[in-house]
Amino acid sequence: GTPWAAGRFTFTVKATDSNGLTAQQPFSVTIARPPAVPAITLSGLPATSKPGDQPTVTITLASPYPLPITVTAALSISPNPGNSTDLMFSNGSRTTQITIPANATTATLQFQTGTLPGTIELSLSLSAAGVNVTPAVPPSATTTIAGAAPVISSVTVTTTSTGIQVT
């Protein structure tokens, strides 16, 4: 079977031969939790971002880990969490999963900041061998998009038969 919990488990194996003689023997097995994840740092996310930026965040483990780590990344924005529909990962969602291969120490994530002002938080949860190994203080990073007035970045003026057209 597949273990669902860590701990020491005792069971008895009983065998019967073709003459009907039986023997039994108690056994125990210890299922260990995956080891603790080494210290994690997040880099590449600036303290402030511009609307529409696409920062790349690097996740770095302090040392190699013996198992693949599934990283679930989530984006949130405050103070208006439901208003920024363009805050997302490349999959079009505010959550995504990546895997840090066994014995590797880095992985990267990229996302689009959106266009509304606020503080964006990138938070991570981790699992290995199907077990939650997220540290007590989950890894996270933030960036802030300042509110600003719209800016005209390009103007084109064209003459028409009745006047001018400004684009």
Can you describe what's shown?
- The protein has about 170 residues and is an all-beta fold.
- Helix content is about 0%, strand content about 50%.
- The strands form four sheets. Strands 4, 6, 8, 10, 11 and 12 form a six-stranded mixed sheet that branches. A four-stranded antiparallel sheet has the order 3-5-9-7, with no helix packed on it.
- Strand 13 and strand 14 form a beta hairpin.
- The protein is elongated.
- The relative contact order is 0.20.
- The mean pLDDT is about 90.
Brief overview, please?
The chain is mainly beta and 167 residues long.
List the helices and strands and how they pair.
Elements: E1 7-16, E2 22-31, E3 40-43, E4 48-49, E5 56-61, E6 69-78, E7 88-89, E8 95-100, E9 106-112, E10 118-128, E11 131-132, E12 140-145, E13 157-160, E14 163-166
Uncertain stretches: none
Tell me the number of strands: 14
Mean pLDDT: 90
What does the overall shape look like? Answer: elongated
- H/E series: EEEEEEEEEEEEEE
**What is the CA–CA distance across the termini?**
68 Å
Write down the Rg: 27 Å
Largest sheet: 6 strands, mixed
Strand content: over 45%
Which class best fits the helix and strand makeup? Answer: mainly beta
Helix proportion of residues, in percent? under 10%
**SS element count, helices:** 0
